[in-house]
Amino acid sequence: MTKMVRRMALALGLAGSLGTSAGAAPPQEAAPEAMAPSLGDVLPAFVADGLDGKSQYVDFPKGSSTVLVFFLSSCPHCHKMIPLWNKAFDDKPASVKMIGVLMDQEPPGFFTGMPVSFPVVRSPGRGFLNSIKVRRAPLTLRVSGGGTVEDETLGEIDAERLQQFFKK
User: Fold this and answer.
1) Is the whole model's pTM more than 0.70, yes or no?
2) CA distance 68 to 149
3) d(CA 155, CA 4)
4) Which of 10, 13, 134, 145 has the maximum number of C-beta atoms within 10 A of its C-beta?
5) Phi, psi values for residue 161, rounded to 5°
6) Each residue of 112-157: pLDDT tens digit?
7) Can you tell me the distance from the alpha carbon of 8 to that of 11, in angstroms, rounded to the nearest whole number?
8) Ranges under pLDDT 50 in the chain
9) How far is 3 from 157, CA to CA, in rounded Å?
């Protein structure tokens, strides 16, 4: 009798698990976190320290455009982008601002070995970056007056694509 009870329990258990898995909806996966702001997102003005240690107010006044570049001193892809960003900054229209946002603490001598032409501020912190959905680098954003993201590219881009960020 014990063997029969075990077989029935096993059969009922298998039937029960088959019934629930066959008829049940597949488990829902959590939506992946956005790795970068999306077009139309609005970025807030923020205060960040410049490389000289002085606080700077970064805002997006009406009628202006700002290109923000987020980078890490430890990122080889960012290292490849810095010369392209430098050239874009040197050639940009006067009406467009460009600001680099350093997302980590650079090693001593980083900016000597990797010169940067554009103004750079230090990120206000991981909480700020998360709040604006900046989780990867390199990231290039064009932000219109009022803080609306008009264009964005995550990762390395070529000079032709980069020039699109500086068009009026």
Assistant:
1) yes
2) 10
3) 63
4) 134
5) -65, -40
6) 999 999 999 999 999 999 999 999 999 999 999 999 999 999 999 9
7) 5
8) 1-2, 4-23, 25, 30-31
9) 68
